[in-house]
Amino acid sequence: MIKHHPNESLLEQFVEGSLPASISVAIAAHVELCPCCQKKTQALEEAKASQQFSDAAPLALDADMIQLMESIALTDDVDEVHDYIQPTFSYQGRDVQLPRAIANIDRTKFSGVGKVSRARLLLEDGELRSSLLEIEAEGEIPEHTHTGFEITLLLDGDFSDESGEYVPGDFIWQDGRHNHSPRTKSGCLCFTVVSSALHFNKGLSKLLNPIGNLIY
Amino acid sequence: MIGQQQSVDCNVKSGTRKAVQDTPSQALSDALVKVATSRDRKAFAYLFEYFAPKIKRFGVKQFGNEAQAMELVQDTMTSVWRKAHLYHHDKGAATTWIYTVMRNASFDALRKMKSNKEEHISEDIWPIIQDSQTDDEGFKDHLQTAQIQKYINKLPPAQRDIVKGVYFQEMSQEQLAEHLNIPVGTVKSRLRLALQKLRAELGDQA
Ligand SMILES: [Zn+2]
């Protein structure tokens, strides 16, 4: 069962559309996997909607508004919406279905160091970078801390760190106060959002730089 | 942004929602359905009068200027006119649906301001049609063959009626429910069962 969810204020900002795109993608993917957060976001959307749209008194439309209204309804055309077919994603001999928000964004090919490889999502978003991260069985990411934050959404397989074990759908938010060294027994696939380069222990930084660059 | 953003539980608060008496919910929902089914311009004018000034007010708060607020009104109300057929009144209030359309338009506009790129990533983050049975859609294309017809005819009558209604008479699940005088939930579960059986029968061919 999923144990780690985005907290209340994060979900609220998500529903308002006020979070950066990469974080919104991470939360949308969690929500797709988590029935409980689905209910919560629906309830939040209802609450926001009645906040914005509850006063009944229609204001009189000015000339600009009336012109706009008429121009919109000029044609009878409708937008065709194509059926969405969820593509299958294969890694390490396993077939999985990626959450829609992740699957629909273009990404680079996978490239890696050792047991860790990543594909970057082509999503321009300031300092935030998002990726699909694949770790082979018995692989790990060396202990590191962050100056910013790191979101990890486990999509498939197993994954654990100092705080415990995670299941697919778990939404893990790490910031500068934590240091952790995630590892996997039988291999896993994650979605990650990272806000700045990772910091490994100084003495080892040279050695570990490639993986640091890989993950950010 | 920094801080504990993750939570180890997920409690849905219930009973806190109070009905907003001022909102003419039924009338708004009816108008949206009329726009969808008969391109009713009077119904659209009613929706426009109700929502456009409120969307503009939201836009001014969001973007800090009138021109962009008007663009938000245009983007949102254009989607309402052109996508009304995607609204399902059994899934929620018209106000909620229009809120999500506005939120999506506003999200794309804010991104456009930041990255100067025209894109509609909001559709990937918050799909306007949320169909959990999306993987059944690919299946639909294969349904025309005689062999499948044969399997469909072997289904229990209750399930067969649903499959035929949805795939051959192209009725919506809501229409079918009304037609057969059963709850929509029953239509959905019978359809699910029927598709499971068909998949099992067809094995790898599907
Ligand atoms: Zn959740």
Automatic annotation (TrEMBL), chain A:
Its domain of life? Answer: Bacteria
Domain ChrR-like cupin stretches: 127-193
Matching Pfam families = Cupin_7 (PF12973)
InterPro entries hit by this protein: Anti-sigma_ChrR, Anti_sigma_zinc_sf, ChrR-like_cupin_dom, RmlC-like_jellyroll, RmlC_Cupin_sf
Protein name in the entry: Putative transcriptional regulator
Print the organism lineage.
Bacteria, Pseudomonadati, Pseudomonadota, Gammaproteobacteria, Alteromonadales
Gene name, Swiss-Prot/TrEMBL = chrR
TrEMBL record, chain B:
- Coiled coil feature spans: none
Give the transmembrane ranges.
Answer: none
Q: RNA polymerase sigma-70 region domain location, by residue? A: 47-112
Family the entry assigns: Belongs to the sigma-70 factor family. ECF subfamily.
Query: What CDD domains has UniProt attached to this entry?
Result: Sigma70_r4
- Keyword Transmembrane appears in the UniProt entry: no
Gene for this chain: rpoE
Could you confirm whether the keyword Acyltransferase appears in this record?
A: no
Entry-linked Pfam families: Sigma70_r2, Sigma70_r4_2
- NCBIfam families, per database record: PRK12526.1, sigma70-ECF
Source organism: Pseudoalteromonas peptidolytica F12-50-A1
**Gene Ontology terms for molecular function:** DNA binding; sigma factor activity
Domain RNA polymerase sigma factor 70 region 4 type residues, every copy? 147-198
Name of the protein in question: RNA polymerase sigma-70 factor, ECF subfamily
Q: Which GO terms describe its biological process?
A: DNA-templated transcription initiation
